[in-house]
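ARCHIVE CARD
Drawer: 12
Card no.: 0347
Subject: one protein chain, sequence and derived structure
Cross-reference: see card 0346
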Amino acid sequence: QVQLAESGGNSVQAGGSLRLSCAASTRTSTNYCMGWFRQAPGKDREGVASIDFDGTTNYADSVKGRFTISKDNAKKTTYLEMNELKPEDTGMYYCAAGRHCTYADRDYKYWGQGTQVTVSS
């Protein structure tokens, strides 16, 4: 069982930056892909970024060049650095742990409760 807890969400103006953190209850670095997802009001949840156990990263086209996913294995924490934020980045952000680095919800077994990001224009 892996418990995940996100933090770092806030309200910012467009162009601003935030860093989200996802603390895991157990070591995930060697067994799991860690993903960040987001869900805007009235929309489906979408994958934003992922980092595999070997450090391979992937990003959704909408965030490439602006967001960076990283992890600190010793702290059992995964981060999402978000720069040049846009109003369309607004949503509840979730981290998840799974065996396969995809953007499909079904591939992630463990989920956090989410942290809210609001970007105003």
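Annotation on reverse: The CA atoms of residues 1 and 110 lie 8 Å apart. The radius of gyration is 13 Å.
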